[in-house]
Structures are given as structure tokens and as C-alpha cells.
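If you are new to this repository, start here. Below is one unmodified record pulled from the training split, so you can see the exact layout before writing a loader.
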Amino acid sequence: MWRRLQIPVLAVVLVAGGGVSASAELLDGVQVASLAQPQSDEAAPEETAKRVVARVDLSDQTMHVYVDEQLSHVFTVSSGRGSYRTPTGRWNAEWLSPRHRSRKYNNAPMPWSVFYYRGYAVHGTNDIKRLGQPASHGCIRLHPDNAKTFYKLVHTNGKHNTLISIVR
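And here is the target side for that same chain:
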């Protein structure tokens, strides 16, 4: 005659740096175990995000992009012309818009926009022949391919990990 044993279920949960969930249980005298990564919609852990610094030099119309203190890219830019001055200072990225259009300037396209201060942004331009000289209403313009590269760096690593520094 068979006798059914009541054996308690053993469960172990390990949580360390992203954690792995492990469990084991005895079923009819046989130990069954499973090991699974937790499912999460959260962004990558803080440790994997890199620090992105964009240093825009208005005197030579360039933007040097550093990722974790290593020079990653050098882009030619266009900054503010005439009375449309580009403000100098240091800001974290505030918000992103991949297909932005200017409400202020005739719905002008501003692809791959990274906004940093009072409506100013680093963004792509179709007026690529004027890159390397002041030509904007104060924003930092890039070739669309370069703007997309910068946008993706900011999106991947986080606005709070991105610093935009503009100097004369």
C-alpha cells in the first residue's frame, strides 16, 4: 500500500545585483529545481549606464563627445547666428524628441533633438552646407547622422547621465 508523504516545499531566492531566482521542491520523493532570470521592464542597471559629456566649442564650431571620459566622436556644428546667441553653460539633458518640429520657427524639422535648457536643443539639420559656421536660432545643429548617434547615446545611457557643456 502506498503512503503519501507531506514534505514541505523548499524555495530559495537569491537577490544580488539583478538577482537570479532559484527554487527547488520535492515532489513524490524527487527533487525538482529551476533557475530563472527575473523578468523586468526596467532599464539597464545603473552600473551599466555610461557618463556622456558633449562639449560644444562655439569658437571652432565643434562638439566633442566623451563616453566614460573617452573621446568617442567629434562633430562639426552650427550654433546661433547674429543676435540669436547660443547660451553658454553646463546642463543635463532634459528631454528627447526623435522627430521634433519647431513651433516657434515655421514648423522647421529638428530631428533627433536632445533638449537641455529653455527650449534649446542639440538636433539634426537639413542645412548641412552651413555646418561649421553660426547659422541657427541658438540651438546646436548637427548633421542628421551625427544627431542620431548623439541621440542614441543619450537615450541608451539616460538623460541624467548626460552633460552638455557649451563654451566660447
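Two things worth knowing about this chain: The chain has two domains: 9-40, 48-167. The two ends are 91 Å apart (CA to CA).
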